[in-house]
Amino acid sequence: MEANIRLRDIPSVDELLRSTGVAEAIECFGRPAVAEALRGVLSRIRDEVREGAGVPSPHAIAAAALAALEANDRSTLRSLFNLTGTVLHTNLGRALLAQAAIDAATAVMRETVALEFNLEDGKRGERDDHLRALICELTGAEDATVVNNNAAAVLLTLNSLAGGKEAIVSRGELIEIGGAFRMPDIMQCSGVRLVEIGTTNRTHAKDYRNAIGPDTGLILKVHTSNYRIEGFTKEVGAGELAGIAHEHGLPLINDLGSGTLTDLDRFGLAHEPTVSEAIADGADIVTFSGDKLLGGPQAGFIVGRSVLIEKINRNPMKRALRVDKIRLAALEATLRLYRDRDRLSERLPTMRLLARPKADISEQAERLAPFVERAVKGTFRVSVVTCESQVGSGALPLSTVPSAGLALAPPSGSGRMLAELATALRRLPMPVIGRIERGSLILDLRCLEDEEGFVANLAHLDPPAEGSSP
Ligand SMILES: *Cc1c(COP(=O)(O)O)cnc(C)c1O
Known about the structure:
Elements (H helix, E strand, L loop, with lengths): L2 H5 L5 H6 L4 H7 L1 H20 L7 H16 L7 E2 L16 H12 L18 H11 L3 E5 L2 H13 L3 E5 L5 E2 L3 E2 H7 L3 E5 L7 H7 L4 E7 L15 H10 L4 E6 L17 H6 L4 E5 L10 E5 L1 H9 L2 H5 L3 H13 L6 H4 L1 H7 L2 H18 L5 E12 L2 E15 L5 H12 L5 E2 L1 E3 L2 E5 L6 H8 L12
Parallel strand pairs: 1-13, 3-6, 3-7, 7-8, 8-9
Antiparallel strand pairs: 2-10, 4-5, 9-10, 11-12, 12-15, 14-15
């Protein structure tokens, strides 16, 4: 049959819109969007028919349009299985929230709340009041405020307390946390002049003393969250530094980064300075994140002396950096969990995942190995391995936690097949993200809690075949 005769057999958009097959799509996506999708499919079909193809059934055309609508409607903010072994992965959204935090956030999303309203006297209240007492109780600080994230906390603190003046920092602490946060850049944005002292590996008390002058606004100490300088090193401890600052009437700001509220030694991790310790050591202001080791939503805490917090709160920049009721509610619920530290590892996902014993993870790996083997159709060698998980988000860069997982090794060590497998895993309905290490794809199971969901998801895997196209 001539192509232009067959072209006449292609149904029109109107005919298709009236057919029963698209009723459901219209219900879901609305008539204009369905009509647009059908037009797209029909235009492609016309091209194919001109090239000699047959005309698909109206049912098939409707199905193609529906598939296009569904693909276009899927959020790019996809849920996935984090099997990288990094518990707090910045690119994968950091901390998972506790149920109590999720419930609290959901409740305030639905309801009107006394966010800045004092129910006692009916006057205006302050949004920080909901957290202030709790943070002070948990950290020993006099006062506290909360902003968008720790980068904002540092920016706001520096600008409020030393805008137009000098801030002294050791060269060993001029950190970069993931591309966008570089201490010298943040300092410049905040309007303070950076005065670098000491050397990369050694900074002495006299370096601080010699740098202090009439233009000095504050001394800044930065926790080297994501690296360690080892060997011939010297740093001035927080306590001694507080002494030097106070001798000269200057505030000491301590940017802790992760700033845990509890001792991590119990999870077999190295000691990370706690916020209470930093306060006890004499820092006038301590800043830290909400979604790193604390295990809450993204936020930045500024805690310390009342007079300084008041000054920070008066800065107009504070208004631009504040958090909304949803995060406040989630933060409050998360902080409350710290009142019962013994049950923290049951209730707070970050602690639960960090505390998971290796034996438990190994057993899980043994259980899952046969399913993974079946899913890769024997192309990759699957073995149970021990590995090391990391905390992530710049906390404890050198301290890892013993873990277990599955190593998927390609035949004859083919790097191409390994990359193809990683791609196939990312294309699953619930993408699986592992890490490539020494010629294998490692799936660290520390963060795998939904085992059934993982197995069901594997049924959709389309693994690369040996000798498949390059
Ligand atoms: C992570 C980190 C920051 C930035 O915190 P965000 O909450 O990611 O904005 C700042 N300083 C230090 C020392 C950090 O470790």
